[in-house]
Amino acid sequence: VKRRLGHFLVRVGAIAAKEVLHIRRDPRTLYMALVMPVLMLLLFGFGVSFDMDHIPLAVADRDGTRASRELVDAFVAPGEFALARRAGPEEAGDLFRRGRALALLVVPRDYERDLSRGAGPRLQLLVDGADPVTANQILAKADAIVRSVGLARARRAGLSAEPPLQVKVYTLYNPEARSAEYLVPGLAAYLMAIAAVLLTALTVAGEWERGSMEQLFASPVGRLDIILGKLLPYLGLGILQLLLVVGVGTAVFDVPIQGSPLAVFAFGFLFLIGMLGQGLLISVVTKNQLVATQAGALSALLPSMLLSGMLFPLENMPLALRVLSYVVPARYLVRGLRGVMLKGNGLGVLWPDLLAMAILALAILAVATGRFKRRLA
Amino acid sequence: VIGGRRPGLARVQFAATVRKEVLQTVRDRRVMFMLVAAPLIQTILFGFAVDFDVDRIPTVVADRDRSPESREHLRRLLADGTLRRTAVAGDAAEAERLIDRWDAAAAVVLPPGFGADLAAGRPAEVQVVLDGSDPNRSNVAAGAVSRYFGEVAESMMRDRLERQGLPSPALPTVAPRLWYNPSLRTAPFMVPGILSMLLVIVTTIVTAMGLSREREVGTLEQVMVTPIQPLWLLAAKMTPFVFIGLFDVLLVTTAGSWIFDIPLRGSLLVLFAGTLVYLLSTLGVGLLISTVSSNQQQSFLAGFLFALPAILLSGVMTPIGAMPAWLQAVTYLNPLRYFAEAARAILLKGAGFADVWFQLVALLAFGLAILGLAAARFHKRMA
Questions:
Q1: Nearest Cβ partner for A129 among B142, B169, B179
Q2: How far is A224 from chain B (nearest CA, A)?
Q3: Which residues contact residue B166 at a Cβ distance below 8 angstroms, ignoring those fewer than 6 apart?
Q4: Which of A24, A79, A156, B236 lies 20 to 30 angstroms, CA to CA, from A219?
Q5: How confident is the model over A146-175, as a mean pLDDT?
Q6: Sign of the alpha-carbon dihedral angle for B13, B16, B18, B21
């Protein structure tokens, strides 16, 4: 038994060594596979934010009094909004219609007089709703600014406006609300999916395309040897990517690892196994690199981004997608990495996620190996 | 053809190659599936999965007062659906434990005596505990609680002033009016963005890999031996993708308006013109990638290395205005930015040539530059 195991390891090792040689002969692939995660992480970390400040605002001040100027200053001074251009009422409307300003504030004539007479004047705010995130921010910010202007006037008029009711907010885990802490665990899933599924699918599909797979079958190596030998180097590459993403995340963006680094590794490892299996399955089914790319993008990349909770909360989605997300391994990985890195969860909390990933990985590997066998016959 | 003039010959050669390319593309059913069904699947998935309007936030409620007032406030706070009660805790510590175990992402804790304090006009405090690992969601949760209790506080203040016989302060109010997308749905915002992402995936990566494959197999060299001019050959190879691109635009906008009820306010003609100039860039990048890659794997990786940052820096997912200034400057070099802007303006705002001419000219300039560079490299490599 020991000798058979020895032979087995030698065969797997030989295939793996050949595959490593392939990767090393083609250093550009290796560079790109390693540069991509770092580049994406930096771009996401610096570039992805929904919080706009200096939102371009056009103002049509029909009143032109001290009170109206005070109001406009309250919009512009804290940096939440920026005047697109000082303009008269007509021109301001034009700025908004042409998209140069995302909102148009119309201060009515008699604004000051209404205020001093005790009638609440109505300000008009036209908001460009094409981008709903920005529009919502504009609405919330404008509401808060106008309310605070009103309360400040009331206070000056001697009317106590001290709110008797206070809301105290405590934020756990990511108190500064930095998007990097949120994105790094999710990105790790996405980037590992690219490498594991697509690179595997492409290499193996390439062997079918060129006919070298048939040559391998003619040699005495078994199909398990081929599969393991082919997948091992990409497992290594995936782990390298995980280390890179987590390393850059902690070094550049100060993302903490509250829990055990070993748990991070365990999650990454199980995820990679499943993704490699998926890559193998795609290559066996498509046998064509071009089709394999698109199949991989549709079955691995898209779900890993959209149905994992990486960017958009799952509980927000329609029921059908929520149900579908249970078979997306990235869902468990994102939760697991966030739990370990940000919350400091241990396996006591996260074991169901690890178990689900293990089941999905075994299932897809079994299907892939089965299809591989039938192709051989 | 014998004795035919060169322009005529070139036209015949071009037509023949186009015919061959179209046949080859159409005959491979899997490729056709990818070019037709994949865009549809992407549109549907993006349209349903991406919703910037966060609600149904799982919330644990700790009502330590247990008075009719506290129950009523909690009921009204949860009524609009932004927060959804998923658990009940006895105190703040238990609520935190539930958040730690992923049973909730927010907690609202009402202290003992809350109702009595409010009724007596004594200051009261509501505690909110948030899972900050998703900053957007925790912002929404905090906003919902603050807004609700802010309104309660304001109406209590007015009541108090009224009881004391004082006039209510005259507060200005805002009457917002939303243009273009009045119910602020995410799908009308996403679908034009999906178009720009999709065309990159379908045209850039498919072109780059297709040409790399021909080089791998050696068919490109075989064709080069025939009298066809390399540039005509290239043009012929790109032609099917121009039609596939236009078809995908039609498909996605149709699906978008049927399934997600997005408005189609502008003219399809302007959108097609925008697509054509955009395709110059996406096909050009694909060609350029194929000239620097030696196999399909490299082409694929290089394609993604272009596509992912380009999508991120296009304003499709997050507003460009929210990026740091240096990144905002970089987005001006990104063809996706111009197409996404133009598509959004055409579909949602009914923009015509007069409104999006700048984007179209920018796309044309980028497209010609990239395509020219790529063709030059291709020519050199083939010669």
A1: B179
A2: 24
A3: A159
A4: A24
A5: 75
A6: negative
